[in-house]
Amino acid sequence: MYAIQNGKENTTVEPRLDYFANPLAGKVLRHINSASKLLADSSLPTTIQELVKIRASQINGCGFCTDMHTKDAAEAGETAQRLHLVAAWREAKVFTEAERAALELAEQGTRIADAAGGVTDEAWADAAKHFDEEQLVALISLLGVINAYNRINVINQQPAGDYQPGQFG
What would the DSSP string read from start to end of 110-143? Predict the structure, then answer.
């Protein structure tokens, strides 16, 4: 759908269906949201959680989740500089070694179909140096959850840009 505004052509993005209003989707999302809440309450640092969700969402092209998690991270005190550099984290000096390990695992875990053999032993060993077993379980599970959210939103073409921090609870 296209609209003309101020003499310029703008794209108005519409989802393929109203996923969030569908009764079955509501049941599915309640389970995914429950898992997400468990992970949010885990010992994995919130900063790491948000960075991982942002990076996976960027890789998957999920504007809805990228919008949500950058806004949530900013609301929690994350700096604009770090948020702008998540996509180029390897070249940025602003991330800790633990954050870098988590971002590497996030990239390899999200691009699992592109990587022969999935996550490398080197990436896993690096993450294991920075996180205990519970945190590693949380990190793996978080990647599964955010990739599920991303796929739902990308397939449905869920529009991005209107999210307000705390909107979903």
Answer: HTTTTSTTSS-HHHHHHHHHHS-HHHHHHHHHHH
Give the span between the Cα atoms of 69 and 89, in whole angstroms.
16
pLDDT in tens, 20-44: 899 999 999 999 999 999 999 999 9
Closest to 129 measured CA to CA, from 106, 109, 100, 108 = 100
pLDDT digits (tens, 9 = 90+) for 41-75: 999 999 999 999 999 999 999 999 999 999 999 99
3-class SS of residue 38:
helix
The model's pTM:
0.90
How far is residue 43's CA from residue 156's CA, in Å, rounded to a whole number? 32
